[in-house]
Amino acid sequence: MFKSIRWKFITIYFLLVFIAMVIVGVFIVEKFQENLENQITKNMESLIKTLFQISSAISSDDWGKVKDEIKGTVTQLSIDSSEKLYIIYNSKIPDMPEIIAADRSNESNFDNIIGKNAYEYGVLREDIIYNALKGEKIIKNDKVNMIKHLAYPVENEVGQVKGIIYVTSKLNDMHNTLNDSKEILTSATFLALLITVLLGFFIANSITGPIKDVTVKAASMAKGNFDQVVEVKSSDEIGQLASMFNYLTLKLKKTMSEVYREKSKLDTIFKYMADGVIAVNVNGDIIHANIVAMKILNITEEDINIKKYDEVFVNYNPKLTLQYIQRVNRWKGSHLIEIASSVYRVKFASFRNKNNEIGGLIIVLQDVTEQQKLENMRKEFVANVSHELKTPITTIKSYAETLIENGLDNEKLSYQFLDVINSECDRMDRIVKDLLQLSNLDYKQTKWNKTSLCVEELLKDSFFKMKISADEKMQSLNLTIKEEMPNVVGDKDRLEQVILNVISNAIKYTPVSGKIDIFARLDNDNVIITVKDNGIGIPENDIGRIFERFYRVDKARSRELGGTGLGLSIAKQIVEHHGGNIKIRSKYKIGTEVDIILPVQLSTVIQF
Ligand code: ADP
After folding, report:
1. 106, 227, 286, 562: which one has the fewest Cβ atoms less than 10 Å from its Cβ?
2. Residue whose CA is closest, atom 8 of ligand 1?
3. Residue 480 pLDDT > 90, yes or no?
4. pTM value surpassing 0.85
5. Are 543 and 566 in the same domain?
């Protein structure tokens, strides 16, 4: 009904005061009227008493005999102007009570009054006279004419009513007084109500003001503005409410900032973590996906709102769909999926809602492509090693068996067989040595003997060591060093091993009469040694894998030439250990160029 507490308050106040004033007013008027009436009755009765005191005739047994005396006494009686007094004699004639006296105010009218039948005299009431004649004292108000009637029966010695003293009194004055009082009370009520409304307004304002303030500020707080302070003006309940509100605001602000901090922390973790994270509710709606997850699954923010989780995952692995998980009721697990040639481990687990029921799934996508690659490489490596060793072992075994079976009678053949066994043993020895060296490099077991090395000397030594091999194939091997080379810091034997490997590859994979050039130049802070040949070259697709262990473009050919397929991977590890690099450029059937890049600065050398 009332929208504002202020008006409710004022109305209640108004009604309370109004009801109180009305009750008090009615009570006062009633009491006042009763008092006034009693007073009038007392006056009338005291008039009768006075009459008895001053008139002995009234006490006479038969008023009929003392009519004149009574009349005389009554005429002399001084009475109030509002009162009238009549003496009615109970004559022996039935229905003829006779008026024998009246007060002085009737003097001019005595002829019409005295000796008349009281029943017929209009001012006096017949019923009152009738009852009074039976001996009953009657007091009655005539509200129409505003007159009070008192009929007092007077008895003789034998108890018969000899007559009635009849007094009337006008009630006009009393009514006027009562009306005045009512008017005063009504005015007082209005004034009180006016004051009440005004006071109520101010009091309500003092109560509703702070409440309104709290309401407005609470509304603002609901919109997220927590910098709300309510002025505390008192220490009463309202003041306590205000200070409680301020305390609540402070607490809420602190809690909200803590929640926000936690949320932003989580957001940052989700945003920058390397794994993709997706949260899904039980209805299959994606409720959260971090950038990594969106990138992996190739979905946009918009897709998250439109697409269902199952729609996204069903193509990768149906066992990851919510439908499947719900059916088998297994809410924790892990699967491998492949997306765009990358491998991901998808781990999922359920989370609970506030009712401690399953609320959905958290899915984490980990990129395990590298791991998988390494795992595959490891498997490949083991297979390669087994294969590389199995070939010479099989050869050795078969030749040895033949020798055992056929004896050593044929000396020449036996010698040839033993020569094969020997060279296969050499081959195994080379493989095992290379593997050991790689293993030492991998596990940092290699002992490095680093000194300052003259590049020119290093190259010349290698050149002369390989010259014989080149000459055997009638290849021209040339060394060109145009400028003066600074020294490099390194392990002489190992670096020589690298240079020899590269030159020997050039000789191996360059046909007879081919040309091999060795250059050295200074480029910024690096010494670059280049070995260039015009040999068979490497097909473009193989160049990227050339440094992998056991990788050979033409396995049979390499094996035939005594290669293990480990030379370049060892070379790369050694050069990288010196802080350098090794690069290969090649054109199939045209030739190959290998750069060995070594830093000059000692500081750039990585020390292990
Ligand atoms: P290998 O012991 O087989 O020579 P490497 O690791 O030294 O092993 O070389 C790996 C492969 O790279 C070789 O088998 C060969 O196919 C290719 N290769 C290396 N150097 C050359 C080159 N100068 N010309 C052509 N192919 C080469």
Report:
1. 227
2. 565
3. yes
4. no
5. yes
